[in-house]
Specification:
single chain, LytR-like, alpha+beta, DNA binding, OB fold (Dihydrolipoamide Acetyltransferase, E2P), three-stranded antiparallel sheet, five-stranded antiparallel sheet
Length: 109
């Protein structure tokens, strides 16, 4: 069964499949739900949405949750997603994320 994240704004309401999400980023009062094709902005808190996510999602920074399934590489203090998008991380966050990603890849074998 496919899980969805509800996105409700003044202009529209829709559900975004969890499988499509690359990452979630808190941008002040708005939450950016980023997929490979579109970014949805909604007045939500990242903490509330985390309850709807599974073990593929890792809270790498206070305001950033990444989908480990959508990462293709972790190098040079960056994580690179399947669509080529790159996110730079601080040194400590990068080291932790790289370790979690490596363990995740080993579990896929």
């Amino acid at each position: 069964m496919t899980k969805y994240i509800p996105v409700i704004t003044r202009g529209y309401s829709r559900k975004v499949p969890v499988d499509d999400i690359m990452y979630l980023e808190q941008r002040q009062r708005k939450l950016a739900i980023v997929t490979g094709e579109e970014t949805y902005l909604s007045y939500q808190r990242i903490e509330n949405i985390e309850q709807l996510l599974d073990e593929r999602f890792y809270h790498t920074l206070k305001k950033l949750v990444v989908n480990l399934d959508k990462i293709t590489a972790a190098k040079d203090q960056s994580i690179i997603f399947q669509n080529g998008e790159m996110l730079m991380l601080g040194r400590e966050s990068y080291v932790r994320t790289k370790q979690i990603y490596a363990a995740y890849l080993k579990n896929l074998l």
